[in-house]
Amino acid sequence: MSSSSRVCTTLDLAGRDGPDEDATIVCLDLRDPALTPPGPRAGGP
C-alpha cells in the first residue's frame, strides 16, 4: 500500500505541446476532508 496520499498532475494552460513555461503542476491531497464524500467513514449521515 502506498503511503503517499498526494496526487500530482501537470496542466498545460496553453493547451499545446511545447516548452513547460505554461505548465502548472497541481497537487491534491487525498486526505483533504473537502475531497472526501459524505458517508459513515467521513462522519456523514
What would you say about this model in short?
By secondary structure, the protein is mostly beta strands.
What tags apply to this protein structure?
mainly beta; two-stranded antiparallel sheet; 2 strands; 0% helix
Could you give the distance between the termini? 29 Å
**In percent, how helical is the residue content?**
under 10%
Morphology = elongated
Q: What is the H-and-E element order? A: EE
User: Runs with pLDDT <50, length 5+?
Assistant: none
Strands of the widest sheet, in order across it, are 1-2
Q: How many strands? A: 2
Helix vs. strand class: mainly beta
- Proportion of strand residues: 25-35%
Average pLDDT reading: 69
Write up this protein.
Residues 1-21 are annotated as: Disordered. This protein has no helices and two strands. It has a domain at 1-31. It has 45 residues and is mainly beta. A two-stranded antiparallel sheet has the order 1-2. Helix content is 0%, strand content 31%.
